[in-house]
Amino acid sequence: MSSTKIIAIVLIVAGALALAYGRFSYTKESHDAKIGNIQLSVKDKETVNIPQWAGIGAIVIGAGLLLAGGRRA
Question: Which residues are 60's β-sheet partners?
Fold first, then answer.
């Protein structure tokens, strides 16, 4: 399997996941303090929204790469 086909499949899967879920969250540790035996930390939960056009674009580009790779072979 060529690298072009692998990239195309990854783009299609990533685009489908972006359309299915639409967002993802992660936790970022922003502040950390240690005072004697006490340790404090602040964790912020960040949410990233993925636009629908990005998911559709990834699927279209992946399909285009797959079709272009198939025509060359």
Answer: none
